[in-house]
Amino acid sequence: MHLTFRPINLETDFAYCVAARRDAFVCSFGSDEGFEDLLAGYFERVSERMGQPEWFYRHIFVDGGWAGQLEFRSTSPEPETGYVHLIYLAPAFRGRGLAPLLQRYIETTLTNAGCRRAMLSVSRDNHRALTFYRQHGWEFVRANPKHAKTDFYQCWLLA
After folding, report:
1. Distance in angstroms (rounded) separating the CA atoms of residues 51 and 146
2. Which of 26, 80, 85, 130 could pair with 71 as two cysteines, CB 3.0-4.6 Å apart?
3. Ranges for the N-acetyltransferase domain (predicted)?
4. Residues 6+ away with beta carbon under 8 Å from 84
5. By the 8 A CB rule, do 107 and 158 touch?
6. Helices and strands in the chain: count of H runs, count of E runs
7. Residue-number span of the structural domain to which 30 is assigned
8. For residues 64 and 44, what is the distance between their CA atoms, to the nearest angstrom?
9. How many domains does one find in the chain?
10. How far apart, in whole angstroms, are the C-alpha atoms of residue 110 and residue 18?
11. Residue 59: which CATH number?
């Protein structure tokens, strides 16, 4: 199995971005109700951020086929801390041992950018994601004050 990470090409692959975001939203909140609000301005935000060195938008390919998406940045309000916005694997690629490789890619990229820690927000109802995060070094930090159903988790990065 050959795994590759490529910068997202919005002109040709935006439909993958929307599909990944929609499925991740459903996995987190049980339906896509409210998803369209999140999608408003998404293309423009990603397009603008892709030109900034602290943002990382990657599509994941396995043996040449699209398998998922990562969205993260090497900055956050907290010092030396990166922030993960999306770790997504398409359903056909879940449970195949790829998620630790995605986490390693994020950790390496953030470490190389000077981060000592990563943070993310995860839905309390996304049991599969929570199980993975807890088994792979992510620790509960606090409830997310901006979203009643999510909590912040952190992971210390290896030097």
Report:
1. 27
2. 85
3. 3-159
4. 70, 71, 72, 106, 118, 119, 120
5. yes
6. 5, 7
7. 3-156
8. 27
9. 1
10. 25
11. 3.40.630.30
Q: In the block, which residue shows the tokens 């309000």? A: 77
Instruction: Print burial letters for 117-156: b (CB count within 10 Å at least 16), e (below 16).
Output: bbbbbbbeebeebbebbeeeebeeeeebeeeeebbbbbbe
pLDDT in tens, 50-63: 999 999 999 999 99
- The tokens for 110 are 């953030």
Residue 111: partners with Cβ closer than 8 Å, 6 or more residues away: 157, 158, 159
As a whole number of angstroms, the distance between CA 117 and CA 51 comes to 23
Please give the Cα distance from 87 to 92 (Å, whole number): 15
How far is 157 from 140, CA to CA, in rounded Å? 15
**The pair of three-digit structure tokens given for residue 92, joined into one six-digit string:** 């056909």
Contacts 24+ apart (CB under 8 A), 65-69: 66/13, 66/16, 66/90, 67/3, 67/92, 67/93, 67/98, 68/20, 68/93, 68/98, 68/102, 69/8, 69/16, 69/17, 69/20, 69/21
- What is the structure's pLDDT at 1? 86
